[in-house]
Amino acid sequence: MRIQQVTENDWRLVQGVRLRALREDPDHFGASLSREERFTESHWRMRLRTSTTWIAVDDGDVGRGIVTMMQEPGSPVDDRHIVSLWVASEVRRCGVGWSLLDAVRTAAVGDNARTVSLWLLDGNHAAGDLVVRAGYTRTGERQVRPRDPSQTEERYVLTLRGAHSA
Q1: Residue 96's domain is classified under what CATH number?
Q2: Domains in the chain: how many in total?
Q3: Sequential DSSP letters for 10-46
């Protein structure tokens, strides 16, 4: 399994992995499958131009995981935010999620970020265990999920070592 940063020319690969993630684990994302199935090529390309995405690819060039890093609007300029973290069920607990998070951490350090953050849906214990093992801490900051007000999520943050002070 290799982790590769993708460009807008890889939009079909990203589309395939993202739609599979939404199909197989719809409750873990703030987006809906029906909405993203309607996205056109230009939308996928724009998404890849405005954020940084990595795909976990197996020896057959099949995408088995995804993570996207972005600077979230309204967040501090030295924070990078993770969205779309997902690993295919057949390769979970094999280090793929860890490798995707490591790609984000390395890029964030290269961007002189001080923190990396993400929101996790309450009850997503596997992802919570992964990010805590990767050094993220629970903040206690909670929000109601915009797509489903009956659900809540919590913010986790990783403080990067050697990050520049603001």
Answers
A1: 3.40.630.30
A2: 1
A3: GHHHHHHHHHHHHHH-GGG-SS-HHHHHT--HHHHHH
* pLDDT recorded at residue 162: 58
Is residue 155 a part of any domain in this protein? no
Q: For residue 120, is it within any domain? A: no
Burial profile 40-64: b = 16 or more Cβ within 10 angstroms, e = fewer: eeeebbebbeebbbbbbbeeeeebb
**In this predicted model, which residue has the larger pLDDT, 151 or 69?**
69
| Residue 136 forms part of a structural domain | no
Query: What percentage of the chain carries pLDDT values higher than 70?
Result: 97
Q: How far apart are CA 90 and CA 85, in angstroms?
A: 15
Buried b (16+ CB within 10 A) or exposed e, 70-86: bbbeeeeebebbbbbbb
Q: Which residues span the domain enclosing 35?
A: 2-113
Measure the CA angle with vertex 123, ends 119 and 126; round to 5°. Answer: 80
